[in-house]
Amino acid sequence: MEKQEFAELRQRMVMEIASITAMVGDRIGKYNLDPDVLAVMGTVARHDFVPHEMQPYAYLDRPLPIGHDKTISQPFIVALMTDFLQVGSQDIVLEIGTGMGYQSAVLAALARKVYSIEIIEPLAVQAEQRLARAGCANVEVKIGNGSNGWPEHAPFDRIIATAAPELIPPSLMHQLKPGGRMVIPAGLPDSQQLILVEKNAASGKLATKEILPVRFSLLEGAASG
Fold first, then answer.
1. Each residue's pLDDT tens digit, 82-111
2. Which CATH number goes with the domain that contains 103?
3. What is residue 222's DSSP assignment?
4. Based on the number of CB atoms within 10 Å of its own CB, is 148 exposed (0-12), middle (13-18) or buried (19 or more)?
5. pTM for the full model?
6. Which segments within 75-175 are labelled E, that is strand?
7. Residues of the domain holding 102
8. Active-site residue (options: 19, 73, 116, 203)
9. What's the pLDDT at 225?
10. Domains in the chain, number
11. Which of 3, 31, 179, 205 is the 20 to 30 Å CA partner of 69?
12. Cis peptide before 213, with omega less than 30 degrees from 0?
């Protein structure tokens, strides 16, 4: 496919994201996503972050296989999670589950720095290569157990997870900066919820809010309840 074809499909994808948001507005508490998030979704080339044979399907609103029994999340979910994260231009973001780097690239366009952890080495290596080709110089990827976070660079303004533990790992809650936000899927495999975690800037107390039922790959290495 040609570059212009991909660009047109990407804009169609953004319109579909906006339409889905309006349809589920009652459930998520908003009918429109941040225009900056939608602009980034319309710019980042999702087809560069999927296997070559999946490129023709890159802008459909569905998860796609990326190997190793993992998937890239559907575009609506990427946009929704990014919106609820409320990433600012000076924010330092921790991402759990790099995959092939698509969510990382979206975050990179909004944040000052993204630290991303991937437990599957071949995916981490591919993500680094794809992010470099996309010009995402502010993303650092490491191979490791994401449920432990990245203590060397904590605390983080924002934390996002693209795989689901049964319970939110205490290490991630600890590494969230006061005033920070975390968006993470959690729960048993058949009853996961996308959860917003906010840490009070003054008291450090945590507040959680369920956003939407979801189905994510399990977070490998996370302790179960």
1. 999 999 999 999 999 999 999 999 999 999
2. 3.40.50.150
3. P
4. middle
5. 0.95
6. 92-96, 113-118, 139-143, 156-161
7. 63-214
8. 73
9. 46
10. 1
11. 3
12. no
